[in-house]
Amino acid sequence: MIKFLPAKLPKDTNIRRIDSTWDYKGEKTKSYTHCMHTYPAMFIPQIAKRLLEQYSKKGDTVCDIFCGSGTALVESRLLGRNSYGIDLNPLATFLAKVKTTEIDNKLLYKTYFKLIDDIQFINDKEITIPNFKNLDFWFKSPVIKKLAKLKKAINEIKREDIKNFFMVIFSETVRLSSNTRSSEFKLYRYAKEKLENYDPDVIGIFKKKAEISLEGMTQFYKDVDKNTWAKVIFGDSSKDNGIKENSIDCIITSPPYGDSRTTVAYGQFSRLSLQWLDIVDESDKVIQIDNDLLGGRATINFNHTLKSKHLQKVIEEIKIKDEKRAREVLSFFIDLEKCIKRAYLILKPQKYFCIVIGNRLVKQVRIPTDFIISELGQLNGFSCENLFVRNIPGKRMPIKNSPTNKVGALEDTMTKESIVILKKIK
Q: Looking at the domain 3-102+224-259+294-424, which fold is it?
């Protein structure tokens, strides 16, 4: 039976410590450059900051092996830590690089005002309409033209870091002016009835997001420790990404909660931005993102070397209901263990590996991912020092999903998440 104890936690994978001080309900989560762009399942900066303060010190080099849009990296630079971030989504690495690059607000505001003026003088003959599949399906014709004018004006900015800053805002504008339901991460087109009167104010959206982002960058430029650096790597965290063994003082990360196709579709969320930004120009390459992420390809069979008792139990339970889904879950944990092994190699002895994770539901079976990570960690050279449970008051995750694909059949997915603290033994 799973035990919940508010007292001091023994080193036992079957005990969670409920701690509401990790909830941060009602606190502002969009300060500094965290405000610049939406990204799926971002973990809030307060958690990153607290973990950094508790498990690292000023001058340390930390790493986020699933960095997403760079929350932990931004907080690292604010707290005087150097940082590496690794991610397999090219949109994520682009966002993380921009959010961790401080730019003088005077230069940004000067460029912004000029940019808004320049857009007014670009005519239809000067613009280049992008040529990617289903462009007209996802965007109305007037929106396409306005976005193309905006992109042209941004591309004329000479300084690369400033251009990239405004390209991030452009990316968010693309998402918010498209025909997709922006409240969701998967690509769902608005209903025909809504699209008839749908007329997004492209420039207005851009200006609103720009003004928020300019304030955030102004604050970041003022408070960032300019003696620190953040290096963002487009790569696979289960492989060698050029980070030396035994060189990292602390790893803080929040992995995907499950395979991308059935939990949070990072590839779908990123598709339109990547195509407009010319980072990825073909839909099939964007779809590949979801296949490349953890558990992106289901295992052929149930043969594996993972020795987690909790994992074996849930695999058997899911397998009874749906063999394919069971293989997808198994594939996710096979990939995750590879990342744990690589994390062990780059982390210094006696240092900490902090993982923020949710226990998702698959086929109405709750997967104790936190316990499984604790077990896999201990099998690969770590000790489990602590396991906290927090409520998720505002994280943008699917709270309900359909367990049976029946219309109206919904169930809770995740309203809590766990923080697993592992320590490299030697």
A: Rossmann fold (3.40.50)
